[in-house]
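Sat 14:20. Reprocessing the chain from the morning session after the first attempt stalled halfway. Input below, unchanged.
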Amino acid sequence: MKTIGIIGGMGPLATVDLYHRIVLRTKAATDQEHIHVIIDGNTDIPDRTKAIISDGKNPTEELVKSARKLEQAGADFLIMPCNTAHYYVDVIKQSVNIPFVNMLEETTKYTLNKYGKEAVIGILATDGTIKSKIYEDYYAKVGIKTVIPERTQEKIMKFIYDVIKKGNYEEGTALLFECVEELKEKKADAFLLGCTELSSAQYMYKFNGNFINPMEVLTEASILYAGGELN
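Finished this time. Tokens:
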């Protein structure tokens, strides 16, 4: 099987959750039947949202450094558990000679297959992802309509940064679901968890519904690309 290289550290919890899901979802009866995974938990990568929306440091140097380090370590292809960082995906791909499995592309294909072109997708994500319109652009290419929060966007940012990233898990999911309610008012049929902290939150709080979890989509795509079988 192929070796997976994970550009991690964005954030550390999301990186752990992705590897955890790969192990859980791989059909294997022994250690040796699992997929070889190399992780670079690079916490020196600057905040992607700050880089996109304000004067934050550009993260491409560290992203490229991680990609090349993983290639040199023996990774056959790369994945990255950070939605916002996919804003820089072309630079990363150009810096290495191994394939990159794009979480946003895989999520778009999954959405189209499950919900069809007529669905309206509500996007829950960081300010950086919202401002860059990367998910809107991917969905627009296949004819899927998207809606974004307005009055509750600051609530989802607070949930991502103050609850999940800071580890204040006892705060619960109230902020997240305030944003979901606004998207329902905008006729959203399903809700994209467009930040890996939101993906981690779904695993942690175990909430269900019409949620599209890109990290779960990436997990499945990576296992299959590596030549493994899904559990």
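The chain is about 50% helix and 10% strand.
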